[in-house]
Structures
1.
Amino acid sequence: MTPLERRCRWLLRAYPAWYRRDRAGEMLGTLLEASGPGQSWPSLRDARALVTGGLRVRGWTWSLSMLWVVAGIVGTGYDFYITTKPFTWADVSLGIEGWSADPVAVQIAVVLATVGSLTLPIPLLIAGFVRFRGWRPRNLLRIAAWAGAWIAGFALVYQAEVWGDYPAKCPAIGGPENCPAIGSPAVVSWGELGICAAWLVLGAVMTWILAGPAHRSDVPDTSSRLPSAKGSRLPPGTDDVQA
Amino acid sequence: MREPTYFVLASLLDGPLHGYAIIQRTGELSGGRVRLATGTLYTALDRLTAEGHVELVREEIVNGRVRRSYGLTPPGAGALRAEAARMAEAARLVTDRGRALQVGGGARKASPA
């Protein structure tokens, strides 16, 4: 396998697995034919078109979900980051841990992640059910998984409130004298670690649920539409980049 | 109809073509103006197939990979002809008026003399 082919295969992963199963080999052949001799990297134009094409096939609900997952990962990463430094009374008053002493870039990332985490859930919940509309038997499992993922998500938020006691140890009123933890680094508890891991698993499950085609017509099952090819169907996996 | 879609359909007028041949043909037909990226081509082919404008006509294995050829369907040819007529009409609107302006401009120039 040439470096160009390996990189093209990697880029094709922008498309969901069900799409790649049918199309990836054909697209890879076209990409390689369209490349110049000695070329070892796909052109920027091709790379951009593959990524946007993959996102389009996955659908905007999936992109919204990924955005939310990324916001969650940024928030989780920040939770770990703040445990490396002592927090101040200003943090307790603001309710945002470590905020006052953070670099501007970190502050912006935290604000964006917080806004994303708070604004995306409800549109995403509705969008997921809209995506699985039709209530046909083949969608029922995914609808149940989607509802289950959200119930698990709310349970996790509840547990995070219970276990994530930083900086709730200190009352926002009463002054620093009521907050003996000020000046010492916070510690991530085992419960919070479990919650972070569960969030990552939940994000993977949600992405998997949304990765499937919403409708049968979305699947480019081109070979089944070829009238003369019934006797000469390709062997399974001939063109699957996952192989 | 967007320009790349128009040229993809036009490239299939002479017969079925596979992906790379469609990219080449659209480039030739558009005088190099439309340079389709592979991802863009297959997005267009998926949409055109779903709309019934393009159909799969041949499937073969080349270098261990599947190569599919696509052809224009009668509704696709109809849509292409309709788009061509619409563009010709739109072009005529401007070219006729341009000619009239030339004639008018010539008349105005001529009148003071």
2.
Amino acid sequence: MSSPVEFSFTDYQPYDFANRRHIGPSPAEMAEMLKLLGYDSLDALIDDTVPAGIRQKAPLVWGAPMTEREALDRLREIAKRNKHLVSLIGQGYYGTITPPVIQRNILENPAWYTAYTPYQPEISQGRLEALLNFQTLVTDLTGLDVANASLLDEATAAAEAMAMAERVSKSKAKAFFVDENCHPQTIAVLQTRAAPLGWEIVTGDPAALDPASVFGAVFQYPGTYGHLQDFSEIIARLHAAGAIAVIAADPLALALLKSPGEMGADIAIGSMQRFGVSVGYGGPHAAYMAVKDAYKRSMPGRLVGVSVDARGNRAYRLSLQTREQHIRREKATSNICTAQVLLAVMASMYAVFHGPEGIKAIAQRVHMKAVLMAKGLEALGYTVSPGEFFDTITVEVGHLQGLILRAAEAEEVNLRKIGNDRIGMSLDERSRPATLEAVWRAFGGNFKVADFETDYRLPEGLLRRSAYLTHPIFHMNRAESEMTRYIRRLSDRDLALDRAMIPLGSCTMKLNATAEMLPITWPEFSEIHPFVPPHQALGYREMLDDLSEKLCTVTGYDAFSMQPNSGAQGEYAGLLTIRNYHIANGEAHRDVCLIPTSAHGTNPASAQMAGMQVVVVKSTENGDVDMEDFRAKAKQYAENLSCCMITYPSTHGVFEETVREICEIVHAHGGQVYLDGANMNAMVGLARPGDIGSDVSHLNLHKTFCIPHGGGGPGMGPIGVKAHLAPYLPGHPETDGRGGTVSASPYGSASILPISWSYCLMMGGEGLTQATKVAILNANYIAARLKGAYDVLYAARNGRVAHECIVDTRPLSASAGVSVDDVAKRLIDCGFHAPTMSWPVAGTLMIEPTESETKAEIDRFCDAMLAIREEARAIEEGRMDRDNNPLKNAPHTVEDLVGEWDRPYSREQACFPPGAFRVDKYWSPVNRVDNVYGDRNLVCTCPPVEDYQQAAE
Amino acid sequence: MLKFTAEHEWLQIDGDVATVGITRHAAEQLGDLVFVELPDVGASFSKGDDAATVESVKAASEVYCPLDGEITEVNEAITADPSLVNSDPQGAGWFFKLRLANRADADALLDEAAYLESIA
């Protein structure tokens, strides 16, 4: 007889999101980890790690944490307060249909959205191919030679084009011409960018342009009110004066119209949003830039190129990395990092999905709908301009403007208010006959679409004659089975968070929970035009306000701006805020920015863009700011000191005890403190930048607050400021009309903010604090496990690190000829993405596990690292060849196995080192990629098919 | 006469024309060069101006004009094949020829022994 079962209630909390879902180690695992570190509680470790002097006094609280279901219910409530109407507002944002196969298999697929920027090309071949498709799409449509992948939004792309024009132009002029038909937000961002650099923005009619007085000019095509113009003749005049011509072109229009390249433009920029990416209340979307071949080395942003691997097979990689800000630092002219990769991938897949026939058909139908719309309005007696257009028309309505706009809204259609007497509208892929009929009713007409004949109103001389999307990749069979498998094949080549930990230091590759991701594709968030009247976006308003309030609580700041749509953009916006504060105080001369040598490369680049003079402060041997040098430089430049930029905890992963003193020194000399929020994952709930003495910070919501990295974007870099700086935060022409606009849309990439907000709701203040503590525990656990095999650099005095640790692989170079690259590539064989390489210290690895990794996964990683050390030891001791060994030959591919095996180690050792899974082994799709070959033989569009055949032979 | 600068350039001076390149040490530090941009023939530079740009897979840097002068000739061979700078930095990998504005300025530059000592 069995003993009776006693019934008792368990204390297990199945819906505790923070401790059971988001935070990796279980309580039992944490106890084991703490034991290894010699602590009996997590709090004891934290007390030993985070200096008491900077700890925040009150705990972080904002009510009880929600379960996933409660948070989703709350988001549905908020979503209902956004009015999901049809928007024909245009102005750079258009209705589009995301093919469901792309929505589900890319946007909603963690294999795509949890990947990191493709710095490790061997494990990024899938998205690199998708981005090469993007570059091919852009070069084809624009008729230019080289395109990047990709930029933040159309307005910042225009600003990047202006900066590039200034750099490459032969003209000595210091003014830039802006077509008055550019979108207002583009003009605003150009003005912001030009002012600190001392460039004048001249806005006007292109016909009145004086080429000799400018270093470049930008024209909108089609214009914001619909005008179409051939800029060839003006461009020829600009060239004669040594100036650069930029065209901001709608890529869908280019399917029917003469390309910028055929007009002689040097640079084309624009937004790829209407290639299948929802408007999302302003973002995220990918912008593009394409240039003539002669200017490719001056182009900002990332460029995917074709190279070969160690077997001579084709392999993709990021090209020309040395132009990047992280190497050029204070000589950089742009701070752009990877931008909007996920959205660029979607746009490229939209083109693969539709092919040239589909893209052309969509463009023709959009145009046809615009013509029908114009005919109906003309039949009602309205004057419609321009006479020839693509998708956008403007109607003279006089004093009827308010009446018609309200009537249209009652018909659930938003139109664009222009001045006080005109109405604009842009037709798009989503517009239906019912949409046209609703608009006609709002204008007082009761027509049916069938009442009008369709025809064309495109200018004869501008009709496109050149072909595009001729590469076979855009001519796949149109069956969805093909598309599904193509997307799957590409994602299978890549290593993302859905497969393994990505321990990239300074990148905070934490969990992007599914519940956080769900709302971003709800139409009430994704299909709201950024310029709808405020009363249609009350849900967004409520979320923006509450998220701002929570971020203020986390950081100790008084106000937040959600406008910057990347971390680097946040730095730039923060520095501009400081600049404008000094100007308002009559201290415009304050332009010196102190930056320690250990800073992120984007810091000096952003300072450069904000018109500041960078003064570099030394770091001590242990990676801290050299206080003596800091004091001396602050004093030396006291007269002109604008600010300092510091990172906390430091980029070396250490909580410096001197941080308060740094803030005091800067303030004493009249400067402001910019604290880079890149390492906020070590601070949330424990310390607040605002309390330490900082005046402004950006937060990388794509690091600390769970927005996925998307394979290299989207990101969000909102800035928080103390009250005295709040009046100088970025404004926007569509909201407050104030200057200082840094992004095309008022709230940056608003549609991904539900991710960060729901993270805050489900974690609660206590959960967020616990996450920080566990992030610190995980990093210290790794440091402890690797101790002995590797030196851990830059620990604090007591040997503790913050949320990341730097492991020194340089000794292996001398002892075994093993480079940091060899270690990184061997980790691929073990099934891991390498940690951050050679930053902030050349030849080392920086490891950041985040709180989301379990002990088991961290142990798997440590086992791999320890095994690599043993392989190096075999070389040191002469048991393994110095050149022909598993480290030098990594990563190993299936091609290696099926070929002749003539290596002094076994296939087993090659392919199944500790860490690698037996059944679920990740196979690198290519051998080691040749960087030198790729940069010497630059190819940045899909190579012709013959090349594929050659590679196969 | 062979001279050097602390910025790792060498000058082979013949009359009032100097052939200029980067030293073996500089080429090794940069690693495999992938791109070289040379000045226009006829351009005039002052000492310390950026005269050329080199890019390797590791770094991008400027090559400074070692003395005041005018460019009389550039080595197109290295723009076509940047690896020449790595394989023969002080020979076939030369960058440009400079007509010196003031021949006597060259005397102040380092000689080979002093340069080698500076990088030791």
